[in-house]
Write a structure and sequence with these properties.
Elements (H helix, E strand, L loop, with lengths): L2 H10 L1 E4 L5 H15 L11 E4 L5 E4 L15 H10 L4 E11 L21 E4 L2 E4 L1 E7 L10 E3 L25 E2 L7 E5 L4 E3 L8 E10 L15 H4 L3 H7 L9
Antiparallel strand pairs: 1-10, 2-3, 3-4, 4-12, 5-6, 7-10, 7-12, 8-9, 8-11
């Protein structure tokens, strides 16, 4: 992680890495997600599952276990270089999922914040070190711009000392200071979960398809009862490096 990346990540709460996933992989995985979504949860290996939302929007939970193709995104060097710099003593891939939106009018409400403190998703700078307890790598599988309902943030809110005055899970257009973060397929947006984030409103009607790989401090357990790993996940992974990144760490071995 270079000095410019550190400055921007600390200042904004996010950075964008351009063109780090090859076009062939993006196209192949985007087609794979469409094929999987045309099936059902029963066709996926546990614990991968399809969840349906309003307006035919869908998500695939625990997507890294849905198909070996999703393992590619676990240890992309440019991403891991940043994750290991900002996650304290050690880190792990805590959970993964994909979200897929169809048509006009959809959006993600704004959530998380610097204050009040959420221990699982907090941010601080101490002893010349950034510590983001949960950091997400966002991989758009389709180009996504402001009118398409792109990812958006309240820049700097990961360090805010005051509660967000518009409330939690508010509509994007309620807040006057949101910043759209447009990105192309093959890019990666890396942000601290403490940053207030959501999306713009989709006004173009174009579909959105996005993968989320969520890295935590190393000893944090799997996120919740819906986002977790199977007991045999380490056997499914194709390299030892990927196993090390997924495996939960024992904090007693760090000191």
């Amino acid at each position: 992680m270079n000095n410019k990346q550190k400055y921007l990540f600390d200042l904004q709460g996010y950075i964008v890495l351009k063109n780090i996933v090859p076009k062939k992989i993006i196209q192949s995985v985007e087609k794979l997600t469409r094929d999987l979504l045309n099936g059902s949860s029963s066709s996926l290996p546990e614990p991968a599952s399809i969840k349906e939302w309003k307006n035919n929007d869908k998500s695939i939970h625990n997507i890294v276990e849905a198909d070996p193709a999703f393992q590619y995104f676990i240890d992309i060097p440019e991403v891991i270089d940043i994750i290991q710099e900002i996650s304290g003593d050690t880190y792990r891939l805590n959970h993964t999922y994909g979200q897929f939106w169809i048509g006009i009018g959809n959006y993600t409400t704004f959530h998380f914040h610097g204050t009040p403190l959420v221990p699982q998703a907090s941010y601080r700078y101490h002893n010349d070190k950034i510590v983001s307890t949960l950091t997400k790598a966002v991989f758009p599988l389709l180009d996504c711009y402001e009118d398409d309902g792109c990812f958006a943030v309240i820049p700097g809110s990961h360090k805010s000392n005051f509660e967000r005055p518009w409330g939690d899970h508010h509509h994007p257009e309620v807040c006057p200071v949101i910043e759209p973060v447009p990105a192309n397929a093959g890019d990666c947006i890396i942000f601290s979960e403490a940053l207030s984030h959501g999306s713009t409103v989709n006004k173009s009607g174009k579909n959105k398809s996005t993968l989320y790989y969520c890295y935590s401090i190393g000893w944090m357990s799997d996120w919740d009862k819906e986002l977790y790993y199977s007991k045999d996940v380490l056997e499914k992974l194709t390299t030892e490096k990927k196993r090390r990144i997924v495996k939960i760490k024992d904090p007693s071995t760090l000191y």
